[in-house]
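Consider this record:
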Amino acid sequence: MFELIFGITFIDYIRENYVEILDHLGTFAFALSGIRLAAEKKFDWFGAYVVGLVTAIGGGTTRDLLLGVTPFWMLNSSYLIVTAVALLSFVSLKKFIFRLNKALFLFDTIGLGLFTVVGIEKTLDANFPFWVAIIMGVMTGSVGGLIRDVLINEMPLILRRDIYAMACVVGGLVFALCYRLEVDRALIDLIAAFTVILIRFIAVKYKIQLPVVKQGDIKINTKIFKSKNKEK
């Protein structure tokens, strides 16, 4: 009963197109996070759509440009459509979404995990080594949110003490480990995405943060630098 029009099962369809499915799910989640933040700043519908779109495609566009390929959304208009669906969904359910505690964090975290995996997959498909794939995964997951925060005049999440980009790095390392162990590729993607999401949830719940570069540390380093120059 799971047969589709083209004669393949629903499960087979997912296995053959899982990267594209994850990409579109991540697009929806990230677009919704951008639109949610734009609504707090009282943007109009067009402004909210732009913020949502930039959030959804910013990281992937940066990745594709660095890999020397045409940005993905220029080859498939479905990403623009998914962002429009996210906007309409928000307009229809905005009262529920605003009441939902940690809604922005939830959408952003899901998008972060899914996009990290998509970035790694697309980089490996372009025949780049794993260390490049992990970097591209981090960029795919975090750059869109960085641009979003700059547009709405907020301190970017990636520059705060929160575990954000580091969650992508760990997810990438888990992906590499599972790949070496020859785990099923679709399962690897799910494990890696879940790892990123889980790390973000744990870090926020238990307030785990990265050490901060303090002003005192900079002064000490400056004194050391000056003393070395005097010795010369």
